[in-house]
Amino acid sequence: MKKIILLLLIITTLSCCNKDDDTSKNPVNQLPPATQIGANKVGCLLDGQVFLPGNQPLSTNCFYQLVNGEYYFALALRKSDDQNILIGIDIGTNAKQIFQGETYNLLEFTTNNASAAYIYGTFENFTNDVYTGELTITKLDPVNQIVSGTFWFDVEDTNGIIHQIREGRFDMQYTQ
């Protein structure tokens, strides 16, 4: 009798489980994995929704260049929304060298700074002293031209709406 009650209890418990409750519905789990192999993957959450680059040409771009003695890093991801309006996320440095294991404050777009931008249509809105974020370089391999890292930032758009970019991750082969 105890075995039958135990069996019924197990069956009842298992029948209460919802197959749709798996972790794949969590937006963070839908982002590319945080690898460091030059997989050319990038993604983030934009206002809580998964934001991945589109399938069109130039939907991602990454470079790290030495120009006139100064270093410039840029990571861009783009896609079009349902109304064919361009949406983009840009992260970069302006005359600032990056190093593996370092974290950079994303501030205003000026010389010797790291900054980020949210693009919607023709409007580009940058981080600043009020709306900031961070860029962390987890891998920088100049021999194989691989840069990997994480990012997050807030930015205010031209309509006064604050956009939150979170859980950003990238693993890119960069051009020089």
Q: What's the quick description here?
A:
This protein has 176 residues and is mainly β.
List the helices and strands and how they pair.
Blueprint: H1 2-15, E1 41-46, E2 49-51, E3 60-67, E4 70-80, E5 86-94, E6 103-107, E7 113-120, E8 123-126, E9 133-141, E10 146-156, E11 162-173
Parallel strand pairs: 6-7
Antiparallel strand pairs: 1-2, 1-11, 3-4, 4-5, 5-7, 6-9, 7-8, 9-10, 10-11
Describe it.
The protein is mainly beta and 176 residues long. It has one domain (30-173). The protein is built from one helix and eleven strands, in the order αβββββββββββ. Strand 3 (60-67) and strand 4 form a beta hairpin. The longest helix has 14 residues, at 2-15. The protein is globular.
Relative strand content: over 45%
Structural class: mainly beta
Separation of the first and last Cα atoms: 74 Å
Q: Give unreliable regions as ranges.
A: 1-16
Q: How would you sum up the global shape? A: globular
Helix fraction by DSSP (H/I, runs of at least 4): under 10%
The beta-strand count equals 11
SS element count, helices: 1
How would a textbook summarize the main sheet? 11 strands, mixed
**Which oligomerization state do the chains in this entry correspond to?**
single chain
The whole-angstrom Rg is: 21 Å
Rounded average pLDDT: 89
Total individual domains? 1
Order of helices and strands: HEEEEEEEEEEE
Keywords:
176 residues; mainly beta; eleven-stranded mixed sheet; 49% strand; globular; disordered N terminus
